[in-house]
Amino acid sequence: MPELPEVEVTARALAQRFDGKRVETLKIHNRSLRWPVPRSLPAAVNGQAIEHIGRRGKYLLWQLPTGVLISHLGMSGSWRIHEGGAVPPRQTHDHVELEGDGAVARMNDPRRFGALLWHSHRDGDVNRHPLLAELGIEPFDERFDGDWLHAATRGRSADIKAVLLAGKAVVGVGNIYATESLFDARIHPRTPAQRIGRARYARLADAIRRVLGRAIEAGGSTLRDFSDVDGVAGRYTEFAQAYDRAGLPCLRCGTRVRRIVQGQRATYFCPRCQRR
Description:
4-stranded antiparallel β-sheet, alpha+beta, Helicase, Ruva Protein, domain 3
């Protein structure tokens, strides 16, 4: 599933190509995504200028004068951009396409768990939309630090890995990046969140920002489906310190990395560097 780095990479590329352009046509080829694409969507957006394309959590937000297009990549989705010349034939899983000033963006989603919805400004602040209202703080928000994590986890007996994945304490730290951040901060993934003190949370907050920053620079991670708007795979897992390294020596101490399963997700850790 595309996580925060993959969505951020997509948002930056879409913004570079489409910010300031006018939506000439929006075509819906298949409405059957996680939630049906509104039939009224073309009428709502055609002819409007795209003010900015950004991100909140794992949601892409296309800001228009009268509202916001909310896009989620689901399990296997991606946006592809075609510019400068003949546009290639539409593929089977190209469900939506948007054309603006000579560029075409197509939303491709083989498993159809993605979404494309409309939030009118008449309905209030988009951050109060049901899909966004309960999201945690952004990891690159200046308020996010060890004190924030410490306060957000008081009374939380769940494993710290599960708390990170839940997205309420901080948004966007998916499975790969939670594993990597906990390794960086030397925290065992099964440690109850409420047992971690301020000093270790300060290390973890720094590690989260560092890991996510590296992942964005690497174009995100590609395990199965994700690729950027030009079809290029993410390269972060080539540099992973712990993820998918079961049985290999820890890059810090040489102890063999172990694999466990938490909440049906694989977790990798060093039993010496990340003691409970």
